[in-house]
Amino acid sequence: MFIGEYHHSIDDKGRLIIPCRFREKLGDKFIVTRGIENCLFVYSLESWNNIVNKLETLPFTKKDARQFIRFFLSGATIAEFDNQGRINISSPLISYAGIYKECVIIGTGDRIEIWSEESWNDFFTSAKDSMSDIAENLFNESVNL
Amino acid sequence: MFIGEYHHSIDDKGRLIIPCRFREKLGDKFIVTRGIENCLFVYSLESWNNIVNKLETLPFTKKDARQFIRFFLSGATIAEFDNQGRINISSPLISYAGIYKECVIIGTGDRIEIWSEESWNDFFTSAKDSMSDIAENLFNESVNL
DNA sequence: CTGATAGTGGGGAAAAGTGGGGGATTATAT
DNA sequence: ATATAATCCCCCACTTTTCCCCACTATCAG
Lengths: 145, 145
What we know:
The structure is a homodimer of 145-residue chains.
Chain A: E1 2-9, E2 15-17, H1 20-26, E3 29-34, E4 40-44, H2 45-55, H3 63-74, E5 77-80, E6 86-88, H4 91-97, E7 102-109, E8 111-116, H5 117-137
Antiparallel strand pairs in A: 1-7, 2-6, 3-4, 3-5, 4-8, 7-8
Chain A binds a DNA duplex (30 and 30 nucleotides) through residues 8-9, 11-13, 15, 17, 19-20, 82-86, 88.
């Protein structure tokens, strides 16, 4: 279970520290991919395999499925730690998430999310006011992701 | 499983690097064919056989089936690597995908896709805005995530 | 204060990617 | 049939990127 919020910066070589608390839960190799809403998702291999198994049931003849799979899998990379606990973020992911200097790394249960500080602040200030409404309808629908 | 996004360019001789990470999964010989949405699909022989088997279950009495099979099989060519890990793209495929200089090579699970940088950018900018909506409904149909 | 743990930055070897020359094979023309 | 042209590969050399290692700083606890 990943929880918490950490602030770190990415360096010129595209390296970013993953907070110590998250490291052992991720294992040696893990997956970084594009998330929804301008952030990156980080999954342990186990969580990732669960998602991929479900995606593989989607047919390539359906347009929405093709688009989602392209988006999600093309953004994915296998990451490993260097001796200092950092990972390399590939340049397509850097530009997607707009992380050039200050980053926010948050734990969200089964995954970690990486945000640029700017996007995170934007998201947070706008989301926090609507949280009461969002909570209201959260469990009304049939399917939960 | 093929994942990731790579940017390379095709040279004047029609040669294109396949990223190192993809090479061993493809094997010595593999298939390049026309894809849906102005890109090329690259399959290992194994995945290719799976698809062909499925296509063979379609009846030639159906017009859509005839058209799709023509499209998909007529574009197919067997490719091999040169010593530097490059492949030759035949000129019908080059003109179909419009790849003359900058290319984007992405992994999408059981296949690789080759896009011209321009087509990819067009696809991506429009897809990323609709991704939130697509994700919302993706598993509402028969399959649940 | 001191030692241990976490985070930051940079140099250099190795791997990956790019471009071009030249020989062999195939095609074309006289 | 032979000379010329075109194409396809294979190889070599150069450039760029990636990754690994080391050294330094910051923070915290005893």
